[in-house]
């Protein structure tokens, strides 16, 4: 692999795992605070 391929690979991995962690965090918050989750859904 050359430098550009490594950069694209690392960037893709960060975006992938970042999105996964973000979705898990949102679902975790929704389970903890059900009252807040209803308000956030109406805003988005």
Structure, described:
By secondary structure, the chain is mainly alpha-helical. It has a domain at 1-30. The protein has 2 helices and no strands. The chain has helices at residues 3-32, 34-43. The longest helix is centred in the middle third of the chain and has 30 residues, at 3-32. The mean pLDDT is 84.
Uncertain residue segments: none
Rounded average pLDDT:
84
Helix-strand topology string? HH
Please count the beta strands (DSSP E, at least 2 residues each). 0
Alpha-carbon Rg, integer: 16 Å
Helix content range: over 70%
Number of helices: 2
End-to-end CA span? 41 Å
Largest sheet, in brief, is: none
In short:
The chain is mainly alpha-helical.
Index terms:
44 residues; mainly alpha; 2 helices
How is this fold's topology laid out?
Blueprint: H1 3-32, H2 34-43
């Amino acid at each position: 692999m050359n430098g550009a391929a490594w950069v694209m690979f690392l960037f893709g991995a960060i975006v992938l795992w970042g999105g996964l962690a973000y979705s898990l965090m949102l679902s975790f918050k929704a389970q903890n605070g059900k009252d807040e989750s209803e308000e956030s859904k109406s805003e988005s």
